[in-house]
């Protein structure tokens, strides 16, 4: 085989390896299931007092739900991050063990065949550990994206509460305003 054939063959292996790594990552990313997003409705600015009060109550309830969703997404993200870090550490340890066993083959003398078997097993274990770490990194990425989306929804829900409160303050007489604002928080 000429030098060009070796280069092309080696390039094919590299491309195949990259495709496998990207594929495993995407499988991890797509395996993460996230909860449906909370729907945030903007309050109607021209509402009279009673509808404005109802809007404020609904906005507070939606805000509580969005905050709970955000907290859950944050916890999922932290869990996925810890799992990805642990899988990465295990992969590095497995790769180091495989490398050390491969170096042992050179000095194993009459036990070289045994060292080769153990080095091969360690290399397969390292490849599996690296694949799992790649998968967990995909899961973490998806969890992070979900948390970012939930944080945005929660911020929008808080803004809707402030807007609805502003409408109540402008549209309701002092007595009805006190009654409306005295309703306990749904959180």
Explain how this protein is built.
The structure is a single chain. The termini are far apart. The protein is about 80% helix and about 0% strand. It is an all-alpha fold and about 190 residues long. It has 4 helices and no strands. The protein has helices at about 5-30, 50-105, 110-170, 175-180.
State the main characteristics:
187 residues; 4 helices; mainly alpha; rod-shaped
* Class of secondary structure makeup: mainly alpha
Strand fraction: under 5%
Shape: rod-shaped
Kindly, what is the distance between the CA atoms of the first and last residues, rounded to a whole number of angstroms? 72 Å
Counting DSSP E segments of at least 2 residues, the number of strands comes to 0
- Low-pLDDT ranges: none
Sheet with the most strands, sense and barrel status? none
Summarize the amount of helix as a percent range: over 70%
Q: N-to-C SSE series?
A: HHHH
Number of helices: 4
Average pLDDT confidence is 87
- Rg for CA atoms: 29 Å
So what's the oligomer here?
single chain
